[in-house]
# Entry
Amino acid sequence: MIDETHFSESEPDDVAIDERSEASAYVHEIDESFEVDKPRIERAVREILLAIGENPEREGLLETPARVARMYAELFQGLNQDPAKHLQKFFTEKYDSMVIVRDVEFHSMCEHHLLPFSGKVHIGYIPQGRVVGLSKLARVVETVSRRPQLQERMTETIADLLKNELGALGVGVVVEATHSCMTLRGVKKPGSYCVTSAMKGTFRSNAKTRAEFLNLALKK
Ligand SMILES: [Zn+2]
# Structure
């Protein structure tokens, strides 16, 4: 995907069979007691080294499988964490205008290549009594991004969480990212951004609300 903008306007009941609805249909059963099997990753990394014709016994590579196992455990730790719990501590506020949090940085791993993609998330919502702190939104973004991930699914997941957990009247999420699977290999398009968005509630039904959000979120 090069410089594409996806406006996701599909709600669960107007199902369109496209890439996105398949992507958002995927649900991983969260098991908070799960522990990453690091020895298994170590064996696999050793296999990769052998498969590319390297010698895993040479000095520089001796610790690599263990290092990669620790790194993967960290990069994928969000897979078995429930992001909703960060939204369960909210303030009760009689504020009913748009709240926008821009430029929340994230780093994730593309599930197609296991290569990083990173960028920024912009979040807007119109509260219905429940407001959360900036750090909680950043925690949600972090948990959702530390998984084998697709940018489209990540965008939808964050929007759904805000809509469902905060009961917000409307939610808009825009994610801008560069994918190293596009810059390092294949079509090699450095500098291209992939932009995805998800609009829920009033952000979906009201063009003015949506325009106000996009204008403030994407202002450079
Ligand atoms: Zn990829």
